[in-house]
What does this fold into?
Amino acid sequence: MNLRLWAILALLGSLVSLSVGTSFAKSLFPALGPEGTTAYRIVFAMLMLMAVFRPWRRRWVWADALPLGLYGVTLGVMNLLFYSAIQTIPFGVAIAIEFTGPLAVAVWTSRKASDWFWVALAALGLGLLLPLPGAQAASALDPVGMLLALAAGFCWALYIVFGQRVAMRYGSMATPMGMLAAALVVAPVGLFQAGSSLFDPQWILAGLVVALLSSAVPYALEMFALRHLPKHSFSILLSLEPAVGALAGWLVLSEGLTLAQGLAIAMVMAASMGTAWSTGRNKANTA
It folds into this structure.
């Protein structure tokens, strides 16, 4: 089996691990709330990454605080918003809405007129998620949850911009230090919301599982995939995440989707894949 096939399997494994981990995290909301669960994910993931990369070996200066802080704070807020969103809307739908962030970044950096077709397709898909006149209340999505997912998408766009800058400047050390900044933001919010429940041994163990499945394992698998796949191929495969999330939500949380919601997810996925394909083709033509 060649390395490219292994890389594809690694990325698919990353999507499955992330989706299962996030679905499991949602089951902790009744006890810890989305804020407490987010604190577990970020703090434990930070400790795991610190142990692996040992960033204290590098000499840091105060000038590093601003770029790493922007990166980390964006990461922490993005996770808080997304976990708050999936409290009231299906997991797969929330991912599809959040995907508008990286889609916007891809189109903005491309500046090709034809890429606006993919924007229109994504917008049409998101339009299917809006409550229609005469629609049954049971099938309508919570508007606050949708706004939270959209805000998470905006943070994801900023995360990509800030992440590219710190990755070029600090390499692999950017992730644990960004996670540290994220933990400093998220941990107080989680402690305020969940209180002493965060120190209950049964929830600590569950939090370790969430961090392992949602952060540590996906990160390791994605790093392997990035080393052996072209970036546009990586992005196209990553666009499968809403579908994998919807499947995980159905299997783990018994979350169902309406036909319109399923079609909306498919449209956003198609828009994301199309943008990645267009970007890859443009780079190949200019090489």
